[in-house]
Write a structure and sequence with these properties.
The protein is α/β, with parallel strands linked by helices. It is built from 14 helices and 17 strands. The strands form three sheets. Strands 2, 3, 4, 5, 10, 14, 15, 16 and 17 form a nine-stranded mixed sheet that branches. Strands 1, 6, 7, 8 and 9 form a five-stranded antiparallel sheet that branches. It has a three-stranded antiparallel sheet with strand order 12-11-13. α5 crosses α6 and α11 packs antiparallel against α12. The structure holds S-adenosyl-L-homocysteine (SAH). The site of S-adenosyl-L-homocysteine (SAH) has 20 residues, from α4.
């Protein structure tokens, strides 16, 4: 039993079963034993690999997007560039290198990194030490200063805890983590949940159907442009997408909480609805493949290959992986969605496909 599993078992004995979002929040963020609190999970020796770690082209193209978003914002002389869940800081470092192509943009930037993991924040400080722009770290969005802002986030939304509801012959009930013979086990809360909790489009379902709900982003006053890239589905649907990954393989989410990454697929339809509730507008999601081509993948890859012919093969392999159109490939499983504080701004931002 992992250290966290023992602690969760004790918690369940005193407080009763934990809703899935609480379980996920503790598995990832428990101050001593949470998965992200204790390790750098990225890379071949870790548990999973992300797009910016596969190829520098990814972060550079997000930089191209950010520069255009700044122009759409009216070229403010000071802008907060905020990254949510920055991992090793690789995306930001690549973005800032590309940003230097537009010196007025680079000069306008203050970088804000929103990160809960002390291990990864330390890694980000190292990566960005020579970036040449002021960087500040935050545990959540509440301390990011006001003013025009550009947000970027890759594989961040999937780490946000979800609640799960399961249809039973007696209506919807919340999925919980309890104890069976002393071991963590999924179960259902005793009382049915009120129908209003379930999104209207998903209320009709057969027994066994699962609905997932993720809480919304905080509301900000100033003009804002954001780009979210993550794996998920474009339309809300029934299904259990809670998944654990350890050493590049799927694992049982209850087997070793705190030692495996735990995520849920992003429901982009629900995400857009939640943003609308906070006064923001989301564009239509596009595949990561479409996003990267729209931002100039071909030209950038050719230029890089021309400069470093010896690295051509590894460059090509990395790019191919990012745009792989197979159903489970990164190019199609991952979607990008642009978000803005107004429809006019969204329309002025770069088209994503
Ligand atoms: N964007 C990076 C890392 C993705 S992994 C990349 O593409 O490589 C998820 C990241 O989100 C990690 O940096 C993790 O520590 C961070 N994270 C997870 N939950 C968070 C939360 N609630 N608030 C802020 N950061 C969080």
């Amino acid at each position: 039993m992992s250290a966290l599993a023992a602690e969760l078992a004790a918690l369940i004995r005193t407080e009763g079963p934990l809703p899935v979002d609480r379980f996920m929040a503790l598995a990832l963020g428990h101050p001593r034993h949470g998965y992200y609190m204790t390790r750098d999970p990225l890379g071949a020796a870790g548990d999973f690999v992300t797009a910016p770690e596969i190829s520098q082209v990814f972060g550079e193209l997000i930089g191209v997007w950010a520069a255009s978003a700044w122009e759409a914002l009216g070229r403010p002389p000071a802008v907060n560039l905020v990254e949510l869940g920055p991992g090793r800081g690789t995306l930001m470092a690549d973005l800032l290198r590309a940003a230097r192509a537009l010196p007025a943009f680079a000069a306008a930037l203050s970088v804000h990194l929103v990160e809960t993991s002390p291990v990864l924040a330390a890694r980000q400080r190292e990566t960005l030490a020579s970036a040449g722009v002021p960087c500040a770290w935050h545990r959540d969005l509440s301390t990011v200063p006001p003013g025009p802002a550009i947000f970027v986030a890759n594989e961040f939304l999937d780490a946000l805890p979800v609640r799960q509801f399961v249809m039973t012959p007696n209506g919807w009930r919340e999925r919980v983590v309890g104890l069976t013979d002393g071991a963590l086990a999924f179960g259902l809360a005793r009382d049915p949940v009120p129908m209003e909790v379930i999104p209207p489009g998903l209320r009709q379902a057969s027994p066994g159907a699962v609905v997932e709900i993720c809480p919304a982003l905080a509301h900000r006053e100033a003009p804002l442009a954001a780009l979210f890239v993550d794996y998920g589905h474009v339309q809300s649907a029934h299904g259990d997408t809670l998944q654990a990954v350890q050493a590049h393989r799927f694992a049982d989410p209850l087997a070793a909480p705190g030692e495996a990454d735990l995520t849920a697929h992003v429901d982009f339809e629900a995400f857009a609805a939640a943003l609308a509730g906070a006064g923001l507008v989301a564009g239509a999601p596009v595949t990561q493949r479409a996003l990267l081509f729209a931002l100039g993948l071909r030209e950038r890859a050719e230029r890089l290959a021309g400069r470093r012919p010896e690295a051509f093969e590894s460059l090509r392999a990395g790019v191919e992986r990012l745009i792989d159109p197979a159903p489970a490939g990164m190019g199609s499983l991952f979607k990008a969605v642009a978000v803005a504080s107004s429809t006019a701004l969204l329309q002025a931002m770069p088209a994503l496909d």
